[in-house]
Specification:
Elements lengths: L1 H65 L12 H10 L13 H13 L10 H8 L4
Length: 136
């Protein structure tokens, strides 16, 4: 009879400990998911800020080039800017994800061909200058 009581007490303690541990893990999981969401939102805001700054830089570079100043470095576009310009010009139908994959490279080639440039799929200086006209 004492053995049964001891076994019952042991099981009660064991099961209580497992429930407490699981509850603690659930709380930690919830906290981690909340932190991940917060970091993803912060990353989104930073991406938008970077895109805005890149657009401003492009706009300033274009205005300096139009003003005739020669101290401006050659126009360099980010992958997102290239995709945006290609989409605005009707050559790119994909998602603007900042990756120069096969679909983006084919769109660059089509844009280059339509604009009398060497269709190599690389957005060099001349291609970037033409694409810049399609950026906000």
């Amino acid at each position: 009879m004492h053995i049964r009581v001891l076994v019952a007490i042991f099981l009660a303690i064991f099961l209580t400990g497992c429930a407490t541990t699981r509850k603690g893990q659930d709380i930690q999981t919830h906290q981690l998911k909340a932190r991940i969401n917060s970091l993803e939102e912060e990353l989104q805001r930073k991406d938008e800020e970077i895109s805005s700054l890149e657009n401003e830089l492009t706009r300033l570079s274009s205005s300096k080039q139009k003003a005739g100043t020669q101290d401006v470095a050659p126009l360099r576009l980010s992958a997102k800017q290239i995709q945006t310009a290609l989409k605005n010009s009707g050559f790119y139908k994909g998602q603007i994800d900042g990756k120069l994959g096969p679909q983006t490279k084919e769109a660059i080639k089509a844009f280059q061909k339509a604009n009398g440039l060497k269709a190599d799929g690389i957005a060099g200086k001349r291609t970037a200058e033409k694409l810049g006209k399609y950026l906000p």
